[in-house]
Write a structure and sequence with these properties.
This is Serine hydrolase. It is a single chain. It is built from 9 helices and 10 strands. The chain is α+β, with helices and mostly antiparallel strands and about 300 residues long. The protein has a single domain, classed as Beta-lactamase (3-Layer(aba) Sandwich), CATH 3.40.710.10. Strands 2-1-10-9-8 form a 5-stranded antiparallel β-sheet, sandwiched between helices. A 3-stranded antiparallel β-sheet has the order 3-7-6. A two-stranded antiparallel sheet has the order 4-5. α4 crosses α8. The longest helix is centred in the last third of the chain and has 22 residues. The radius of gyration is 19 Å and the shape is globular. The two termini are about 35 Å apart.
């Protein structure tokens, strides 16, 4: 796991990035607002990793330590959804295959299945719950059904070496458990989203399924808070904006990846923060920094 750079090194690096990335940039390509916000967070001890690329050309729009492996909470379940979509081609694992929840799968935190009476749900419904609300119980049932090793093998097959789903969801992590649910690298994750948008992950049908599940996400509290969309109804676009995103939240972790399309352009993005979650002020500062990146992305695509 990468560790934060010393303050002096971090301060120099981020100052250089802010100066270098915007020389000669036009108004729409100027990501100075996000750079400044993330740079200030880094100077205050927040570990920051971010990247954005143009969806069509693949051109890098901005990056900050996009090679660093960061804890990413629920972001890693996108790899679970990819494996589920691939496995739907198997005769014994269809969209309507019912999966039971067990006591071993039980977990608190995010999601609504834990509050429902249904003891079993179809595979496709469980994937939709993971996409819509990072449903922890649905995540654990799907992991048990497809196998964590299969998810890891799929990530390796895709060429992902710095992004992984490490474990099932747990209420508490002990010394023998993986330290995080997942880790991710912004450079790899933006590549993954671009490949999904192009129908290149497994095949076009599987890619479309994964994007469909992600389009249900109702968490617009981070980068996507800048887009002004209805958290519960944005699948068909609004004011020319179309969003597909995945978020992850844990103690001291806020992470989001996404694709946002507008009248002018489309982008893929990934922003992850690791910070000392000592109070509401520190958390709100991180969320505000992510929103500033979102405002820059909005300016680029709209």
């Amino acid at each position: 796991m990468a560790t934060p750079a010393p303050d002096s090194v971090r301060r120099s690096r981020h100052a250089d990035e802010r100066r270098g990335k915007h020389q000669g940039a036009d108004a729409h390509d100027n990501f100075a607002r996000g750079f400044q916000a993330l740079g200030e967070l880094a100077l205050n001890g927040v570990q920051v990793s971010a990247r954005a690329t143009d969806l069509v050309s693949g051109r890098e729009l901005f990056s900050i330590d996009d090679h660093v492996v960061m804890p990413s909470a629920g972001i890693g379940t996108i790899l679970l959804l990819v494996e589920v979509a691939a496995k739907l081609r198997d005769a014994d694992f269809g969209m309507y295959t019912l999966l039971d929840r067990t006591a071993a799968d039980s977990v608190g935190g995010s999601g609504i299945w834990q509050h429902l009476q249904a003891p079993s749900l179809p595979v496709a419904d469980l994937a939709a719950l993971v996409g819509a609300s990072n449903d922890n119980l649905a995540t654990n049932v799907l992991i048990r059904a497809v196998g964590l090793d299969a998810v890891r093998d799929r990530a390796e097959l895709l060429g992902l070496t710095r992004s992984a789903l490490l474990d099932r969801v747990r209420d508490k992590r002990g010394p023998d458990d993986a330290p995080h649910l997942s880790v991710g690298c912004a450079k790899e994750l933006t590549w993954l989203l671009t490949a999904l948008a192009r129908g290149e992950i497994v095949d076009a049908e599987a890619s479309e399924r994964v994007l469909g599940w992600l389009s249900l996400n109702s968490d617009l509290s981070m980068v996507a808070s800048a887009f002004g969309l209805d958290p519960h109804a944005h699948r068909t676009g609004d004011h020319g904006l179309l969003l597909v995103n995945k978020t992850g939240a844990d103690a001291g972790v806020r992470s989001e990846i996404g694709i946002v399309r507008g009248p002018r352009a489309g982008v893929t993005y990934a922003v992850s923060m690791s910070f000392a979650d000592t109070g509401v002020t520190s958390r709100l500062a991180v969320l505000d920094g992510m929103r500033q990146v979102g405002l820059d992305l909005l300016e680029y695509v709209h």
